[in-house]
Amino acid sequence: RTLVAEPALSFVAGIVANLGVLFLSVLFAITLCLIPVSIAAWLVLAALNVAGWVAIAAAVAGRVRGSLKSSLKPELMTGLIAAVLIGGLGLLWAMGGCFRFVGMATALIVSSVGVGAVLLPLFRRRRNGISGPGMSPAGPEPADLATERAGAAEGVALLPAPQPEPASAAETALGPEATEEQDDFLLIGGIGPVSVARLHAAGVRTFAQLAALSPEQVGEIIGWTAERVARGTIIEQARALAAAT
After folding, report:
1. Which residue among 6, 12, 110, 190 is least crowded, i.e. fewest CB within 10 A of its CB?
2. What is the 3-state secondary structure (H, E, C) of 13-60?
3. Which residues have C-beta within 8 Å of that of residue 57, sequence separation ≥ 6?
């Protein structure tokens, strides 16, 4: 989901991680006494890139299943996509010459996007205690998101939750049925813990439900203006995440 929502940031984080670990492993290998540390760094690099390839294959598989309306299980489709990607890069490697360089460069670029998508949520959980993409330039003002995070850390919602009408337009659009399924709205850039709590209180628990609402309905629930919802691309991000699941 992070890969779909933030591909550019995922690539930057992944390429920095790949090159950083590669540099450290070579640096450690220069000193004989640090060769075990260098080996450990190589193992970490390999594990990160394997996880990155799985993330890439899963994202592509989600798009392919949605486009073809395939009945294949997500795990099987992910495995097939991974085999195609790795097989194509292996073919370039086997051709030798400049094709080998192209294959290595392509593998590094593609893998870095997946590595970044794996590392970003882990980094955010460690830094903030919550997971989700960083605030997009079009998202809410920093003070708003900082206030929501402060409230989550203290266990108190510092922004007063609005009291929706019993039969608001947003709730009517969702229908009376409740669902046990629940998606992580913190993966949407600009959404904080308080907004998530307000969405849940209104019965909005999945990306598909959020994507089906209008900017006016979303603003009514979380206390924003419709223009701010549209500017923050909240509905567009929810639609993209829903298509990737």
Report:
1. 12
2. HHHHHHHHHHHHHHHHHHCHHHHHHHHHHHHHHHHHHHHHHHHHHHHH
3. 78, 79, 81, 82, 85
pLDDT tens across 1-57, in order? 777 778 888 888 888 888 888 787 777 777 767 777 778 877 888 888 888 888 888
Pair 204, 174: CB distance under 8 Å: yes
Global pTM reads 0.45
Residue 161, token pair as written in the block: 């939750």
| CA-closest candidate to residue 222, choices 241, 203, 197 | 197
